[in-house]
From TrEMBL:
Gene3D superfamilies: 3.30.230.10, GHMP kinase, C-terminal domain
A Pfam family it matches: GHMP_kinases_C
Superkingdom of this protein's organism: Bacteria
EC number(s) recorded for this UniProt protein: 2.7.1.148
Name assigned to this protein: 4-diphosphocytidyl-2-C-methyl-D-erythritol kinase
All residue ranges annotated as the GHMP kinase C-terminal domain in the record: 201-256
HAMAP family in alphabetical order: IspE (MF_00061)
Length: 267
């Protein structure tokens, strides 16, 4: 059985306070985009994992699909599976690729072995693997709050726009990103701001990670400026970076950016 785990972007991200457990409370809008991996599971005699496409850092045991298998195996009498992941979503990009693989792994296992898990149950499982994993179970646009793992639906449809995603040659770790931010309560909730016309977002919607990340990685700031110069209505770094997206009325000419960056059109 095969599935195509998709990426997300964050439209705005406010880090509002540091929590007693060392994590941070935040608010953001998760919006699904059409850049995908391919993930296949096949019942087998022993558990195995193989990957193709982009190289995934870390050991196989650390892959969120394998971690997901062990999590589920603790509660269900599961046979072994052969897992194949074709990696296409840029890594360390703020696109949640690994988190999406974990969520889609649960959805595949649920179907393949008729486990009858509800979406809520699958969300509870994958929350353990990463704060943004639970979003990918349904993958509909949401306002996310607390650790970024609690959601409310938002009515947001950007399909009339041309969304561009640019991955610069930079890598930002999530932990590095959080270390650089001084949490501050937001004046106006993103839930309210995102319902403004897209043309007004530039004035009101920010990503709190940008200040410190842009200081350490000026190439990312350069990409954001280039997207505005090319006519973006709104441009923002996604999550903890390094990718940056732009919302355009029409497909822009970004050939100058294509030389040094990976550019995805109409995501
Ligand atoms: C920044 C965001 C925003 O969407 O996404 P990405 O840019 O990674 O996609 C998320 O908060 C990332 O979520 P996720 O990647 O699942 O984070 P986790 O693996 O749970 O945590 C990695 C590390 O980030 C920090 N962390 C994460 C979430 C949070 N609310 N507060 C934190 O302080 C902690 O130091 C933690 O050890
Ligand atoms: N299936 C997976 N795909 C990608 N990365 C994974 C996966 N499982 C675990 N990881 C680990 O998670 C880290 C961050 O992955 P990713 O989710 O792509 O980035 P981001 O959090 O920036 O969106 C990687 O460096 C890798 O070590």
């Amino acid at each position: 059985m095969i599935a195509f785990p998709n990426a997300k972007i964050n439209i705005g991200l406010n880090i509002t306070e540091r929590r007693a457990d060392g994590y941070h409370n935040l608010e953001t809008i998760f919006y699904p985009i059409n850049i995908t991996d391919a993930l296949e599971i096949v019942p087998a005699n022993e558990l195995s994992f193989e990957a193709s496409g982009l190289g995934i850092p870390g050991q196989v045991e650390d892959n969120l699909c394998i971690k997901g298998y062990h999590l589920l195996k603790a509660d269900f009498d599961l046979p072994p599976v052969k897992i194949h992941l074709h990696k296409h979503i840029p890594i360390g990009a703020g696109l949640g690729g690994g988190s999406s693989d974990a969520a889609f792994f649960f959805k595949l296992m649920n179907k393949e072995f008729s486990l009858n898990l509800s979406n809520e149950q699958m969300r509870d499982y994958v929350r353990v693997l990463g704060a943004d994993c639970a979003f990918f179970i349904e993958g509909k646009p949401v306002y996310a709050f607390e650790k970024g793992d609690q959601f409310e639906p938002v009515d947001l449809d950007l399909s009339v726009y041309h969304l561009v995603l640019v991955m610069p040659p930079a890598h930002v770790s999530t932990a590095e990103a959080y270390r650089g931010v001084k949490p501050q309560p937001s004046e106006r909730s993103l839930k309210e701001l995102v319902s403004l016309p897209v043309g007004d977002w530039k004035q009101y919607i920010r990503n709190d990670f940008e200040t410190s990340i842009f200081k350490n990685h000026p190439v990312i700031r350069g990409v954001k400026s280039a997207l505005y110069e090319a006519g973006a209505l709104y441009a923002c770094m996604s999550g903890s970076g390094a990718s940056v997206f732009g919302v355009f009325k029409e497909r822009p000419d970004l050939s100058a950016l294509e030389k040094d960056n990976q550019v995805f059109y109409n995501v």
